[in-house]
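Researcher: Before we compare anything, I want clean individual predictions. No alignment, no superposition, just each chain on its own. First chain goes here; please echo the sequence and then give the structure tokens.
Model: Echoing the first chain and its structure:
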Amino acid sequence: MHQQKEGSTKVNVIYIFIDFSNLWAAQKVRGKFLDYTKLTNYIKSMYEATSMQVFFYTAYPAEGTRSYNLDGKHKFFTYLEKGLKFVVRKKELKRISVITEQGESIEEKGNMDVEITIDAVHYSPKYNTAIFFTGDSDFLALITYLRTLGKKVYIFSSKNNVSQELRTGSNGYLDVLVIKEDIWGRNIKRRIEQV
């Protein structure tokens, strides 16, 4: 299922690539936020990492597009960068006008696949093992390429959000919802929209 622990003399540099939109789906199912300190400690121990670097990818709403304040979201990004030393790649959600039979509506898109791919390839000389928090089958080509470079590649996702291609195309798959260790933080509170 996943990598067995190896001898302590072996170097295992791990780079983690977190596609937050995929991980958010799992957190909503669990009803809790992930505790990123616990999560990274769990991965470091499980794969006996000699060092780790975490990349976090997210898109956020444009100012004025929500009835609630976005300061908390930006403070969270700062905490990841300064407190946990994550590399945070973020961009504003793109708002696209769409015409349907019901009239005009606005769709928001914030796909980070290109950014994840560029980082995974660019930094590939620096790591032995890559862990992707995603379930998107579009990453199969990237994972296949990294494996041809001799990298170990593992997928962390959840059963309703992972493609069969990633499960079988990687070195291993782990469902974050069934991890036995305590990697969870506070409860997710449903936001009450202000009218």
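Researcher: Okay. Second chain, same rules.
Model: Second chain and its structure:
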Amino acid sequence: MNNLLEPLTEDELAELDHFLLDHVVDEDGDVGDDGVASVFELDGLFTALVSGPTLVKPEQWMPEVWGETEPEWDSEDQFDRVVALMMRHLNTMAATLQEAPEEFDPLFMQDEEDGEEFVVVDDWCEGYVKGVKLAMAQWRAGGNEVERLLNPIRAFTSVTQWRGHELSEAETDKLSDAIAPSARGLYAFWAGQRQAG
């Protein structure tokens, strides 16, 4: 098995992304609402897990990744491979936030329309909110400061009916630019709480 602290390569991220998408696509070729549908959403989920007030174990978050139906594995090797990729991504993210938080950046999807590239933050934010929900009572104990830091993230999710997209372009850009600093701030807040405790 690979070193579980080794960052995923671009090819490995793409491999994991394809696996997650294939799992949530139904027989009609539609993407369901069940489970994590992309590596970008997984990145958001994992960021919340490693940033939050309490340890959420794999047996608690793995069902959130798969949704109601666990994948039909081709082999034990495939299972080991996918789980190893996820654990490496989780571990390297935790290490970055702990050792060099200023270097942490969310993994946002890049899209293109009419020859122009733009960033899509929604998947990552949806994943983060899923991670928060796994320990909602503990997150709520953070009070107003945690709520303030969560606002830019929640603005691009179903929790707020994606209100971040209803603003002017300048306001939407400002809000999306606040996501990464907010994620770092949330990590720092809960790390401080753990040290104080």
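Researcher: What stands out in the second chain?
Model: The first strand starts at residue 109 and ends at 113. Additionally, The chain has a mean pLDDT of 92.
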